Amino acid sequence: MKIKVTEATYEEAMREAVKEYRNPPNSSLLLRTLVRLYSIPELRSVGFTYTKEGMERLGRKEPCLILMNHSSFIDLEIASRILYPKPFHIVCTSDGFVGKEDIMRRLGCIPTKKFVAEMRLLRDMRYALETCRSSVLMYPEASYSFDGTATPLPESLGKCLKLLKVPVVTILTEGAFARDPLYNNLQKRKVKVSAKVKYLLSPEDIAERSVEELNEILKKEFTFDNFRWQQENHVRISEQFRADFLNRVLYKCPHCLTEGQMEGKGTALTCRVCGSTYSLTGYGSLEQVDPANGNSGIFTHVPDWYRWERECVREELQNGTYHLEVPVDICMLTNLKTLYRVGEGVLTHTEDGFHLTGCGGALDYRQKPLASYSLYSDYYWYELGDMICIGNPDVLYYCFPKNSGDIVAKTRLAAEELYKIKKEEKKSKISL
């Protein structure tokens, strides 16, 4: 999938900023039908099936909030198959509207900026539920999973359920990540995909529980491990490109501790410095090949390796050694017409947060650690490259690191851990 890009100066991009507000229109049955028909061939190719649990509790025309895990682009096709012809709106990242705003709105999409606090989103969701009498589909994780496990959920989600006062339904997929993991550069594997649809909470359930209890229920529901699922269900992936670009996720060698020198190619993940090599088996586990210098394999499970990288990043933050400073190409989103490519700059990330400078001195943006609990980052984003996005309700800055190794995953981990650390510090000060 591509995105419309326009060359511009920073000043020109800022002059094009649009703050016009529009209520979500009713979704078009014709467009929903076209999406449903478009989805048939791909869903057939993956042998898609789904099961229902407790869905008889939902009224035939009763709007609800649908929470779905986010594994790959096929998620929207799955939702269309399950929910059709029931009207529903979709909370969608604002860059998905670029160059096609009208059709996206008619399809029922509600634009939002990932990991940017916006009261407008809640207002739009309430409008869709109450005025349009339409359900709302939301991916609460916001971003695709890097390692196949659940990404953090916003702490505000429980409060959102309290305000919306509608039934909550979950759609959790199995096989979608294994078929098309984000790191693998859109190379699809032959894997069957299924989903479980569950009536999770009634309005009465929501009213009786605290925000904290609701968040715990959601956290438990959105706890999964796609690599473990693949192993336990003996799902074999025979494609020889299954480890291509796995270095985007497993960027740090557990043997020599070098970062940014791992290479995922074919079925192997190799450190260019010490030579340690792991094979990603057809069943999704890791096996060390020809151990270098007599070292034995340290990890057999991709999420365990990724979790170790998170622990390493947190340790760097706590001892004051974490520091990111990389040259980047910069794009900006100030409206839904186009993405503006505005030049080059430097992205810095420290315990004080993000600092982006560039565009001949015109751009100087800072973002504090507590601005967001996570980070919008992506691999091969709209086929432009690996990307880190920061910003506020007025403008988003899409940064594409240049010749800097695999830093996208580490930066997301650092942003998440830094948020936790700063929040803990803030709580400690308040308690004193």
From TrEMBL:
Keywords tagged on the record: Acyltransferase, Transferase
Domain Phospholipid/glycerol acyltransferase, chain residue ranges per copy: 52-171
Pfam families: Acyltransferase
SUPFAM superfamilies reported for this sequence: Glycerol-3-phosphate (1)-acyltransferase
Recorded superkingdom: Bacteria
Any GO molecular function: acyltransferase activity
Transmembrane segments: none
Protein name, entry field: 1-acyl-sn-glycerol-3-phosphate acyltransferase
Taxonomic lineage of the native organism: Bacteria, Bacillati, Bacillota, Clostridia, Lachnospirales
